[in-house]
Amino acid sequence: MESVLLKVIWYLVHLIVNLFETIYYFGLEFRENFHNFITNITKDKPSSTKESELQLIESSVQDLEKIPKHIIVILNINNEKDVDLSQLTNLIYWSMNSGVNFISFYDYKGIVKHQLASSLHHIISKKLNISDNENIVWGPNYLKGSNSDGVKFPHRNGYRRHIVINLYSSDDGYGKFNELLTDELYKKATNFGDDETLNSRNITIDKVDRKLSKLFGNIPDPELAIYFGNITCTAGVLPWHIRLTEFIQIAYKQHHLSLDKYLRVLHKYARCEQRFGK
Amino acid sequence: MSWIREEELKLSWIENLAIKVIKQGPIPRHVAFIMDGNRRWASKLNIKRSEGHKVGFEKLSEALQWCLEVGIQEVTVYAFSIENFKRSQEEVDTLMSLAREKFAKLLEEKEKLREKGIKIRVIGNLDMLPKDVQKTLAEAMLLTKDNNRSILNVAFAYTSRDEITNSIKTIMQGYEDNELLPEDLTDTLIDKCLYTSECSDVDLLVRTSGENRFSDFLLWQIPSTVFYFTEALWPDFTLWNLLAAVFYYQRCHVHKKSLKQHFSKTRTALSKSSRLEKFLTSLEDKRYAKLVEMSKFV
């Protein structure tokens, strides 16, 4: 009897919390939509949205103490339908204009990487204008078999913002260590080895870091990981690279994503103080 | 202040009820803690940092008791990171003498540990520690190695990158000594040579004091781990914080299970050869012999 009662309480508590959470997120969305609605009708003349977005980004980014160089977006998705490519394009566009140089998308099943890469490519080139498109560099893991010597930036005149896009799946986390071991063995076996070739006497953290960095096309470690939903979990994202990464929730669902939410995350990140063990 | 509390846990009726209720759902087998906030707590109260660390240790023994009560069988704590060596000499010395004192105390509690079946493992690069600290840690591990009811892993002189590098080093050594063939060298073999090779998978990782990063802790081991962070500073951590973490774990449980399945399916399979088995057994023996040697330091 007692155990049945306890079980019932357990179910009830979970149910109530789920319910409150739904109401909470619904309320947040409602507030934001209502706010946007009011600002839109009270505006004198409707300005082009792209332009006002850029202004908003510029004004809210300029007093931030730090901007992440590399943002990794963790997507919790089960199939292609769960992905909103235009929202991913927004993330790229906002990041590019906030001064972020690298943006990576990770889902452990590799749905974006293996099934949606060309659709994403297509949507980006359609949604963004020509000069924005010129600033986008696809990382070495887009389209297998492309160059592996790292990211090559297109030649450009003067100062222009660029952003490098990478797509990752769980294979990139542990699998890259397989590649690393195979590479080193090959060098040992064929006498192509030099001082840098790993052996049990000369191995150091820095050496492993350099080798992995090469395999990853010299991307810097992501300083910020953003995720959707209420589950905080690495889902196996690049184990070597996330030791100092801040994990911050951006929105409950992909279609809830907005520029305001994105900027709020950048502000939250800028306030994080890192002590590096000290 | 000792590791194992003599007195029975005194809980109010509502705390008892909450524990009974939460046990109706899935309980994480293995919980890891990043016990952050001792120094901030001390400066908040305007007392010495070393006091903060002491109170932090007391909180640990309290939290261990709660974990047992809730049914958590294995606990890992991040006690001292390799990066912490960069702190002031004074603070490093304080932390080392705290470790000396607490582990010496542990050795006195031999009988109690056996009675309760508690096994202590220290994970980390022990070579970086003073010889006498190494000795005490090794003794504690050897003393409790046959206990198996509950397990406490203490990460000391630990970072995840150091651990992964060390594991690759072990594998390279095996290859150079002709104990391994090229096809044995896989990412899954890295798992088997980590300091945590004998630990079970971490189900839930709790970080206090509002930080939401891993700070080089168990990075390799946590692909399907639920990460819970709380604003509470470690000395202020309560049973309710722990229950909230477990509750959160239960809410994420389905997602966690599918992640776990994914990784058990997609990680490279370990070749089933007697060669590999022999290598791993001999690694275990070597590590054991090293502990024995450490414990003999005079």
Estimated radius of gyration of chain B: 20 Å
Largest interface: A-B, 53 and 61 residues
Mean pLDDT of chain A: 87
- How large is the count of helical segments of chain A? 8
Oligomer: heterodimer
Describe the biggest sheet of chain B? 6 strands, parallel
Instruction: Tell me the span between the first and last alpha carbons of chain A.
Output: 54 Å
Order of helices and strands of chain B: HEHHEHHEHEHHEEHHH
Strands across the major sheet of chain B, in which order? Answer: 3-4-2-1-5-6
Question: What do you see in this structure?
Answer:
- The complex is a heterodimer of chains A (278) and B (298).
- Chain A contains eight helices and six strands.
- Chain A is α/β, with parallel strands linked by helices and 278 residues long.
- In chain A, strands 3-4-2-1-5-6 form a six-stranded parallel β-sheet.
- In chain A, strand 1, helix 3 and strand 2 form a beta-alpha-beta unit.
- The longest helix of chain A has 41 residues, at 2-42.
- Chain A is globular, with a radius of gyration of 22 Å.
- Chain B is of the alpha/beta class.
- Chain B has a domain at 27-159 and 198-261: Decaprenyl diphosphate synthase-like (Undecaprenyl pyrophosphate synthetase, 3-Layer(aba) Sandwich).
- Chain B has eleven helices and six strands.
- Chain B has a six-stranded parallel β-sheet with strand order 3-4-2-1-5-6, with helices on both faces.
- In chain B, strand 3, helix 6 (131-144) and strand 4 form a beta-alpha-beta unit.
- In chain B, helix 2 crosses helix 3 (49-70), helix 3 packs across helix 4 and helix 6 packs across helix 11.
- Chains A and B meet through helix 1, helix 6, helix 7 and strand 6 of A and helix 1, helix 7, helix 8, strand 6 and helix 9 of B.
